[in-house]
Amino acid sequence: MKRFVTRAAAALGLSVAFLATSAPAQQQSPSKKPTTTTKKKGGKKKPKKPVGKPVEMGDLDEPVAAPAPPPGPTGTASTGSTATSSGSASVSASGSASSSAAASPTSDAHDAKSDVEAPGPTPKDDRDARDKRFSAALLVGVGIGNARPCGGGTCNAYGLGFGLRGGYEITHHLYVGGAFVYHLGFSRAIPVGPFTSQQSASVLYFGPELGYNIDAGPIVIRPYLGIGLGILSASVTSGFGANGTAADTSGSGAHFALWPGVTGLYPINQTFFAGADLRFAIVGENALSLFATGGLRF
Asked: CB neighbours (10 Å) of residue 99?
């Protein structure tokens, strides 16, 4: 009996020692995934997919990424459908923005075309647009304020006058030109006792002019100043009764001429214009002169 107990205790000790040494080795050795095989027709075996290993305690510490949910059949209950909807909205918004951006240059080009096709300039500005800066005009008028009584009437050296004017507009406002004016003056027979005296006088002047155009609606008002040379001519012829003898005295003199004035011009069309001219001429004798004027641009 004592021997049996001793043998049993020895056997139990060996079993415990064997179990203690085999358990760590089993934990350290990698676990092999069991595989199952299926037998195909023709005698060949096809390995099946390995079965996942059981989750161990160490694996719970590692984060596991959640798999993406599969898209639903209609795309309404999944994240993918939401992204698709967002992408569609983005594409729609981008398309709208692109169409707006594409339409914008066309609109700008249309506006630019509208600006190009805007109505032409007004008459006061179309000088620049047509580039008709040269002008020529005729002056017809009379000098007043120099008349003096003579022989029961009046004698005015300025009298009826006419002239020519030409110029060039350097800019829209600045004008340079020249003028020639001749006043017919007067010629009158004046009785002096038993004798008769024939008297006459006339004035002419010419020179450059400088003016400045001021727009007043369709009318152009041009203050100007002329400076040049003037000639005053006078003649006296006297008769001595029945014997027919006569004395003729005539003469002329050159004088410095100055004529400040103002002209108003109205454009009849793109070529012709008409207006009035008022000036104060100083040529030996002073006189205020008023002229009607008309001409053309070219």
From this structure: 10
What b/e string do you get for 249-264 counting C-beta neighbours within 10 Å, with b at 16 or more?
eeeeeebebbbebebb
Mean pLDDT computed over 155-181 = 95
Rounded mean pLDDT of 59-88? 46
Identify the residue whose tokens are 């169409």.
99
What are the structural domains of the chain? 126-297 (2.40.160.20)
* Residue 239, C-beta contacts closer than 8 angstroms, at least 6 positions apart: 195, 196, 197, 198, 245, 246
- Tokens, residue 120: 């032409």
Q: Which of 264, 271, 175, 166 is nearest to 215 (CA)?
A: 264
Q: Is the pTM of this model over 0.85?
A: no
d(CA 187, CA 237): 11
3-state SS class at 218:
coil
